[in-house]
Amino acid sequence: MKFLRHGNRNIGIAGLSLGEVRKAGRVIADKMFSERYVLFYGFPSKRIIMRTKVFYVDPPLIRGKAMKVAIKLIHQPIVVIINAESNCINKDLVEKSIDEIESGEYAIHMSIPYTSTKLEMLYRKATSILLNIFPNVNLPNYPSYSLIVGVRKYFDLDEDTLWNYEHLATFMALLDGKTKVRIDDSNCKDNVQPVFSGMEELFIKSMLKSIIRLAMRRNIIERNIGLELLKEIEVNMQ
Amino acid sequence: MKVFLALSKNYFRQVISLINNMKPSPKVLVTSSDEEVEVLCKHFGFEFRKLMEVQSIEELHNYDMAILALAEDSENISMFKIIKSFNIPIVIALLHNKDNRDIFISEGVHYIIDENEYINANLSTMLLPDTWVFITPISLVPKIKVAFYRVLRRALLGISYDDVKYLLSKLNLNIYVEFFNRFGNRTTGHVLAAGDYIVVSGFEDDVNKAVKELEKLFRKYEEIQASRILQQIKTKEYG
After folding, report:
1. With a cut of 0.85, is the ipTM above it?
2. Which CATH class is domain A2-116+138-191?
3. How many other CB atoms are found less than 10 A from the CB of residue B54?
4. Domain assignment of residue B237, yes or no
5. Which residue of A has its CA nearest to B96?
């Protein structure tokens, strides 16, 4: 549909970056999106001049906070969040996943894992803990993703995390029951930058805690059980 | 006058004490995400609405001024996007991160108040001696600027006040220069001493020019001092 491709759709895009914008910069600058932002959550060395609007997130180096800010800035019903440092993201791939969500097939679509080996190891541990508590919920295979497209209402949460915000959204969507989540395992894979080495444990812990807190708020598990689990996590993950 | 306020709990005291002093007292409408603000509004008798309701308040067409002082930059921007359609003639926003100034301007905020500029200036005058610190005292009037300088190591150079005053009088600039000692009183001596402050205030361009010239003067004195010390050191000549 040519008129939709060149006109304004009800979509907002936000590219997260530590200080560099690579191939994905072209995707963000596309006029198909009615709101376009680049969010820097690192310490960029020089002042960056771009066509799109640039926002600097405070406090820096916290990806979960950056994603939350992106969702606050975008006022459209469909939200696209990409890793602007990625080399894997095409325009076609983004457009295809948007089409799926606009047609109503899926509520959230994620592809291109964004991981380091240590993060993956710890994430496996965490998922095994979560499977014991919520046997019906299947969480994604990888700890974070470079391309996330979704309906805004699932991302609009009160919870704070340090690293993976997308898992909370999928958790909420899966609890709804009616909605579908699609997670592609594309051939491409992005590596987490070495800036974050050493913080992996904190990231995974905060994700676990926030998922349990979400479940407590929605009355899926009882409050006493939830509080005990939060205490156990502090011991188990060390 | 009708004023629309988007407040976080940190700025409630400052903004409300200002508005209570205004005569005739304005009509005030407050929104906030904090519960504390809602309680305080009931105490003062202000009208309070929740953040979600702002979109549907049609009265906002008649308002004269909006002040956005929420806790984060992203909240301020998203609030401004909601208000945009009401065409309020004056919108003032509080800025937390200096780098986000451009996005505020491109969205169309009329006046921006940079809060961290004052914190930054106060800290850097203490932590960084022998450097110039700039500040705009009222950020709504951007052309007026003040420059501070705390002398520490450069006091050894023995620069006299008359030298500095003579240099600046030659330039014919619209600026006001004053010297203070470290206790905040006017200096009575003849030579710059350790802990002294130099304060230059005036229009932005003039202050920048004066600072440049003063820095040149300091450099020249440093060169002379260095060459003197070099002559005193005994060096062996080989070959």
Report:
1. no
2. alpha beta
3. 17
4. no
5. A58
